[in-house]
Amino acid sequence: MLATVIQLIINGLLLGGIYALISIGLTLIFGVLEIINFAHGEFLMLGMYASYWLFQLFGVDPYLSLLMVIPTFFLVGLAVQRIIIQPIINAPPLNQIFATVGLSLVLQNVALFFWKADYRTVRTAYSTLCLKTGGLMISLPRLVAFVLAIAMISALLMFLKRTYTGKAIRALAQEKRAAMLMGINVYRMYQIAFGIGIACVGAAGAILIPIYYAFPTVGALFVLIAFVVVILGGYNSLVGALIGGLIIGLVEAFSGFFLSPHLKEAVYFVIFILILLFRPTGLFGRG
Amino acid sequence: MLSLENISAYYGDVQALRDISLRIKEGKIVTIIGSNGAGKSTTLNTISGVLRCASGKIEFLGGRIENLPPHQIVELGVVQIPEARLLFPYMTVLENLELGAYTPKARKGKEQNQEIVFGLFPVLEERKTQLAGTLSGGEQQMLAIARGLMARPKLLMLDEPSLGLAPLLVKQVFGTVKEINAQGITVLLVEQNVFHSLSIADEAYVLENGRVVLGGGGKEILENPRVKEAYLGI
Prior knowledge:
The structure holds two protein chains of two kinds.
Chain A: H1 2-33, H2 40-58, H3 66-85, H4 93-115, E1 130-133, E2 136-139, H5 140-162, H6 164-174, H7 176-181, H8 186-208, H9 218-233, H10 238-258, H11 264-278
Antiparallel strand pairs in A: 1-2
Helix pairs in contact in A: 1-5, 1-8, 1-9, 1-10, 2-4, 2-8, 2-9, 3-8, 5-6, 5-8, 6-8, 9-10, 9-11, 10-11
Chain B: E1 2-11, E2 14-24, E3 29-33, H1 40-48, E4 55-60, E5 63-64, H2 70-76, E6 78-81, H3 93-100, H4 104-108, H5 110-120, H6 122-126, H7 137-150, E7 155-159, H8 167-182, E8 186-191, H9 194-200, E9 203-208, E10 211-217, H10 218-223, H11 225-232
Parallel strand pairs in B: 3-8, 3-9, 6-7, 7-8
Antiparallel strand pairs in B: 1-2, 1-4, 4-5, 9-10
């Protein structure tokens, strides 16, 4: 029994790392731009396809593809911010929702048009490798994905904590008008924050492809989880998104084992509703 | 140094400023007084570029600045310390000061400037690793002023710096404003504390319903019977 519990904790945490990476981008975008990016899942989908095609066409290892996916998605994020997000930045919330939901539908259908509804994944030499120690099994690609996700999250947190640009982004999230009055170019920070958010979720897609399938609507599955994570962690706390991601990973592992894998969504949403009822600012949120 | 000519500004459909004209000479303390909603903060926000001006022109050191983006106006040396302080509450005192020195020019002299600011407000040095949101009201106001000074302003605009402070601290704030001015920084002070601000001001403007209704020397305005009656209750 103990071994099972430890195994479940490992499985949950490994999964949670990826959830955290997806969610942290969503939190950053929401915290800084005050926009809910409903197309976030579609950028995950695009990240998965990017890594998939780099592997299929050029034989690039999915983990190596990060070196291309991260800068490319950052630039895509800048462009999307400039073309779609910036015009609606001061618009009423409904217009903002329509814009990002619209973007999400467009991206899904573009993916469907070009790549069909097939489930695609990559077969690497390590796809099915497992580390076995003391009765525990740890899937190698999941472990690598977890380590990379945590490394990227740590790098992001360090960037926000230590660099001038990072501090300016945090300042903007805390007190926008003061940030403007201190000479911070708010528009540029919006772009950078959105670019980073998209780069994070694109990277999450790339490290997911060795363990999951890419298909045009795959984003919806993950983005729902990301919303639960963001609310659980506190919608304006990046550390909250990290811990929230790990918690939801654990919840999924345990509910899958003790209840049924089919019920995992039901469990998330019960948690979601409970947080909204009893602690709407989330675990680490600031009122 | 700074001149506003016939500035009008709106909040939505509501006109907040009507043909405001004022002049600020280098090295002076100029104050704008007026009751709530007279347009004092709006004037500052229009100068800072946070609010667009609908018509008129603003000149700073010979260049037009109306409707430049706020960060460019800060880079030129026009810095506002906003009403209610608006610190970055989840950042330390040091980080707040660092962000005050955000513009490339201010960043270069950051260390040296920080020394000056700590000299002015020793308590901030004692509290430098504390989160800004946990400071007392008086300390927060000091930090807000210090953060503004870190930007190396040529013209410092203060919006109600004495708001919500105990009488002793109010005196201290006005003392600080004079001290800042003595170091060669031109000051534009917006206040509801009419007596104190007129006492230290070289020049003053009275705003009513978005219009300049009176202008002149600080002492002169202080002696004006209309001001005495309306703002000082004498």
